[in-house]
Design goal:
By secondary structure, the protein is α+β, with helices and mostly antiparallel strands. The chain contains six helices and eleven strands. The two termini are about 25 Å apart.
């Protein structure tokens, strides 16, 4: 899931602040590297990006703000070769790097610390092309980060089928409704579709 002004197989070259903002395993000035986050299902990719910190009402329902969808696209990419990842999937995996579930389950306020651990781990495991860990938003699925400085050119390629889906369109909103309904989350349809006479589905 990415901003559509960027290619789906493009690594992000912009590191995060050392202490604030950014993602769990982003690069920073102290360890600069291009990175790309991915998941093995569209639902997990959407959940990892859009469900972070969303409040639910007392009935367990949530409406996803449309502003969160502006310019966003859901794409499918595939690997053209094998990658070697550090597994952070189990208590034993985490203990091997001197950590516990905090590293992969911490909320965004602690991402400055999780990035520091990621950089230490990258320097210990110089062979690692990325990490794999349990998705916080869609257990028991997995999330992945790949390091662009350790991946060969052309490792990722966009797939022609299915085509990328722009999530700020009517079609994209309907896709999100289908993917997120089991999680008690819905999204309003674009205002233009209502003005054009398109009745929202039940």
């Amino acid at each position: 899931m990415h901003q559509r002004r960027y290619a789906s197989d493009a690594f992000n070259p912009q590191g995060a602040n050392e202490h604030f903002g950014g993602g769990r395993f982003d690069s920073t000035r102290s360890d600069p590297y291009p990175f790309l986050y991915a998941a093995f299902t569209g639902t997990t990719a959407v959940a990892e990006v859009l469900l972070r910190g969303l409040p639910f009402d007392d009935r367990g329902a949530c409406i996803l703000p449309r502003k969160m969808l502006a310019g966003r696209r859901l794409s499918v990419v595939e690997l053209t070769g094998d990658v070697t990842l550090v597994a952070l999937l189990s208590a034993l995996d985490l203990a091997a790097v001197g950590q516990d579930e905090w590293l992969v389950q911490a909320e965004a306020a602690a991402y400055g610390q999780t990035r520091h651990w990621a950089h230490w781990l990258r320097h210990q495991a110089t062979w690692a092309q990325g990490f794999i860990w349990p998705s916080k938003r869609n257990l028991p699925e997995h999330a992945v980060v790949l390091f662009g400085d350790r991946c060969p050119p052309g490792l990722l390629q966009a797939t022609p089928d299915p085509l990328p889906e722009d999530l700020d369109t009517l079609k994209g909103a309907l896709l999100l409704r289908r993917l997120l309904a089991p999680y008690g989350v819905t999204v309003r349809l674009p205002q233009t579709s209502v003005l054009a006479g398109s009745a929202p589905p039940p």
